Amino acid sequence: MNRLALLPSQISALIEDICELDVRAFKPGNVSFASPGHGMTATLFLRSAKAVAIPLTRDGATVGERILDSVTATRAAVRCNTNLGIILLLAPMVQAALSHMPATALRSRLEPVLRGLSVDDAERAFAAIRLAAPGGLGESAQHDVRGPASADLGTVMQQAAGRDRIARQYVTGYEDIFGFGVPLAELALCRHADEDWAAVDVFLGLLGQWPDTHIVRKHGLEVAEAVCVEARRIRAKFAATSPEAAMPLLLEFDASLKNRGINPGTSADLTVTVFVAVRLQEALDKIANEPPAELAGGICPPRALAREFHQPLKGVTKWL
């Protein structure tokens, strides 16, 4: 069986495209073209995506090198933390897509990457987190990022998984991404006319599924649970009518969150990761061996989930 791998340039372009989608989509509480917030604008996120395109996908790098080099490049480009969660989530996924393996399924390719994480990976991740200085970072009795790493990155993430949704992906084989987020994205892409609204749908689904751990760190569990309930209510309206009809609710929710300084950052990071996973899987499917000629007529080709959009999200500007 052939051993498949994507090229760094393919993955870089894909990641930049999804990071643009992230700020085109009007995700309440997050920064977008239509709504800046938390002292940041959409332009900072686009500059950050361009800055990490090469260090995150560099051929031959380790997971830890991808993380630290990408955070370093981000700080040099925008002087603030715009993408730490995205970098932490994407580094193992990029490693899996670049590795020469016979498996086509991205989740299967991730398993050996996550098993092979080292102490050096943890040390570099610690340095990256210190450099990014994320809001709400507390202290830990074990494996505190302010000190030297004493265990491999997988063990470190296992210790943090109960309080951090990003860490949880490392120890569950990205269960929230592949078990919940990707199926949700596939439904959303079928339901909505464009990818931007699909991203809003997925974001609301993720925000309503679990308390956002970035909100928990900064504002407490009770606030995070209340945001969860509100996200479910708005998504129900979003699904029952149309995105345009739900826009007043989205605007009200966005203003309410930003006025209180609440940023559902973890849900946004998971949304980006879900759409990157969808695109990476499609790319891997495309380079897989073609079926034998005698079977080709009975095999459905991979669905083209990736779309290209170059206009701001339809239906937003008339409300602003």
Architecture overview:
- The radius of gyration is 19 Å and the shape is globular.
- The protein contains 15 helices and no strands.
- About 8% of the residues have low confidence.
- Helix 7 crosses helix 8 and helix 10 crosses helix 12.
- The protein has 320 residues and is an all-alpha fold.
What are the defining features of this structure?
mainly alpha, 320 residues, 15 helices, Triphosphoribosyl-dephospho-CoA protein
What's the structural blueprint in terms of helices and strands?
Elements: H1 8-24, H2 42-57, H3 63-78, H4 84-98, H5 106-115, H6 119-132, H7 153-160, H8 165-172, H9 175-191, H10 195-209, H11 213-219, H12 221-240, H13 243-259, H14 265-287, H15 293-296
Classify the fold: give the CATH topology.
Answer: Triphosphoribosyl-dephospho-CoA protein
First-to-last CA distance? 54 Å
The biggest sheet amounts to: none
Structurally, the number of domains stands at: 1
> What general outline do the C-alpha atoms trace?
globular
CATH superfamily: Triphosphoribosyl-dephospho-CoA protein
CATH architecture: Orthogonal Bundle
| The CATH C-level class name | Mainly Alpha
Uncertain regions spanning at least 5 consecutive residues:
292-315
How does the helix and strand content classify structurally? Answer: mainly alpha
What sequence of helices (H) and strands (E) makes up the elements? HHHHHHHHHHHHHHH
For the CA atoms, what is the radius of gyration?
19 Å
Q: How many runs of DSSP E, i.e. beta strands?
A: 0
Portion in beta strands: under 5%
Helix content: 55-70%
Mean pLDDT: 89
Count of alpha and pi helical runs: 15
